[in-house]
Design a protein that fits this description.
10 strands, 37% helix
Length: 271
């Protein structure tokens, strides 16, 4: 796997269990290189969100726990840190469903992202202007209550809020969820610009395989808590199984439902 620099994040054979009995992740391993955009792909329930929450240490609030394996960030184990300690080290998660503070204005939401910083108001204001340069629509709506803004504006607010923490890496969970295709493209364009211009590394979990592979450098496909395939984004886009089962494109003859059942798909991938 190519990278601009060394390995930023390394997930090593982790297992995640909820309520002490429900095994959700079964030996997941992958690397995220410095300066990369890596996509975690898969259907709803495959384990993408759980993987991100395992990295950002948000599982305990949902009675989940990493029971095996390790997670390393910049060569240091971080799976036992608290979430706010991880934010201070430069890893921030944008949650699925945006989770804005609805009663606060857009600008107040953005400023909450700078909560862990101790470098003074002038630096925070400088970064606020940087966020507005990437999201000009937020500057227009900065005095509006976040709860009354559109889904696209709330997603922009959530990403902007993450940027206010001056992250080295952003974990982006389902950024396209519930958004019109035009807005999805706009969000991904901004992600790409942030990656190139600000050097922010991205790990994104996304069901929209086509869009994710268009912008990512590398992808991992999760199914039932296991990684079943990985590769460069360009190679995955051309892979016949990925085309058939995730992009809805089949190069062969039309198949019956029996031929696309889960167990047959697994056999093809594991062959």
């Amino acid at each position: 796997m190519s990278a601009n620099g060394g390995t930023f994040l390394s997930v090593n054979n982790i297992e995640v269990i909820y309520d002490h009995v429900i095994l959700v992740l079964k030996g997941v391993s992958f690397d995220v290189p410095e300066g990369g955009i890596v996509a975690l792909l898969g259907a709803n329930g495959a384990g993408k969100t759980t993987t991100l929450k395992a990295i950002s240490n948000l599982l305990r609030s949902e009675r989940g726990d990493v029971t095996k394996g390790s997670i390393e960030y910049l060569g240091e184990r971080v799976d036992q840190l608290s979430s706010n300690e991880l934010v201070k080290k430069g890893v921030v998660q944008v949650m699925e469903g945006r989770h804005c503070f609805e009663h606060l204005t857009v600008e107040e939401n953005l400023l909450t992202g700078a909560y862990t910083r101790r470098d003074g108001r002038a630096e925070v204001n400088k970064d606020l202007e940087l966020v507005y340069s990437y999201f000009p629509r937020l500057k227009e709506r900065r005095r509006a209550q976040a709860g009354y803004t559109s889904g696209g504006e709330q997603q922009m607010t959530a990403v902007g809020r993450a940027l206010m923490a001056r992250p080295k890496m952003i974990l982006l969970d389902e950024p396209s969820l519930g958004l019109a295709p035009q807005l999805v493209e706009e969000i991904f364009d901004i992600v790409q610009r942030l990656n190139k211009d600000e050097g922010v590394t991205f790990l994104l979990a996304e069901q929209n395989t086509n869009m994710a592979l268009k912008y990512a450098n590398y992808g991992y496909i999760l199914e039932n808590g296991r990684i079943v395939m990985d590769g460069n984004a360009a190679d995955l886009r051309e892979n016949e199984d990925v085309k058939e089962f995730y992009l809805g494109i089949s190069s062969g003859e039309k198949k019956s439902y029996r031929n696309v059942k889960h167990y047959r798909r697994r056999k093809r991938w594991l062959a």
